[in-house]
């Protein structure tokens, strides 16, 4: 396979009730009150009678204040407890993550690599990045698995290699939640040889969308079985459908293809001559390849329409009543979809996507959540 072809194929392949009861309940007479206190009731209000008339209001106000104070107390206590639990979980996660030294071998513009970075950043996992030269791929010569991303995790004296973006994410999430040894977790995702629709032998991984958790651990992550099933469904959708819309859209026209490869060369690991060759020959090659991809995946004549429909389908699945598919914070499906779409930033396809669909508010929420969580690299 020609070097340029390898380049182009490789790079683009988230007290009130108590106050009401106290204030609204009829108040009994106090036993210390004497009949003399009511003697002036017929001819006018005596001082005791006047005080009695105002006492229900005073008692009601006092009860309301007491109920409000109790409500504030319980609210503050709940928030403090929530913060404590969050701090405990963060401390456990920090303890686990501190055991790992992570190195990510990637192409920056690869959507699968972008998915992994989104996960690592959101979970505040420090990692080193090694940008792989897409022609020579000397940086991953240690690996018989020749695709990116590859994640190498050093845990004490043990070093583990994780392949495939979804396996990397599932294995690390399982590790963070369960604390099982990473060496053991990897065995839950066996590599299997298969033949794809084009008759080419490929490597697939079993269980790659599953988190290997017991029932108690699963309850920490998911609100119910439906939430777990939903997350798995949309993670697979991101891999099986959404990612295949990227190349036909960013290489849709010769001008867009050239702009895309200009970005790839700037962000990738290329020499001066190699970069110039990749930019112009790669753009021309990918423009032609994108047409074949369009036919293979049965996309519409205007491939933007498929991209728009996918984005709005995702937004509809998230719904209006939650900020993320994961509820109040992004789950693995949110991070996967965000990671795939992020590689188009700065290109016409991304601008069109934001303008012609309803995905931008969700996208910005995920971006903000990742920014707030991620450590500086």
What can you tell me about this protein's structure?
By secondary structure, this protein is of the alpha+beta class. The protein has a single domain, classed as Glutathione S-transferase Yfyf (Class Pi), Chain A, domain 2 (Up-down Bundle), CATH 1.20.1050. The protein is 58% helix and 9% strand. The chain contains 15 helices and 6 strands. The strands form 2 sheets. It has a 4-stranded mixed beta sheet with strand order 2-1-3-4. It has a two-stranded antiparallel ribbon with strand order 5-6. Strand 5 and strand 6 form a beta hairpin. It is globular, with a radius of gyration of 30 Å. About 19% of the residues have low confidence.
Brief overview:
It comes from Macaca fascicularis. The chain is α+β, with helices and mostly antiparallel strands.
Multimerization state: single chain
Percent helix: 55-70%
For this structure, the CATH topology is Glutathione S-transferase Yfyf (Class Pi), Chain A, domain 2
Number of DSSP helices?
15
Note the run of SSEs as H and E: HHHEHEEEHHEEHHHHHHHHH
Query: How big a fraction of the residues is strand?
Result: 5-15%
Detail the poorly predicted runs.
13-54, 60-64, 67-71, 73-92
- In the residues, how many domains can be counted? 1
Strand order of the largest sheet: 2-1-3-4
CATH class: Mainly Alpha
- Count every beta strand, where a strand is a DSSP E run of 2 or more residues: 6
- What structural category characterises the helix and strand content? alpha+beta
Describe the sheet with the most strands.
4 strands, mixed
**Rough shape?**
globular
Give me the Rg, rounded: 30 Å
How far do the termini sit from each other? 36 Å
Mean pLDDT: 80
Instruction: Supply the CATH architecture.
Output: Up-down Bundle
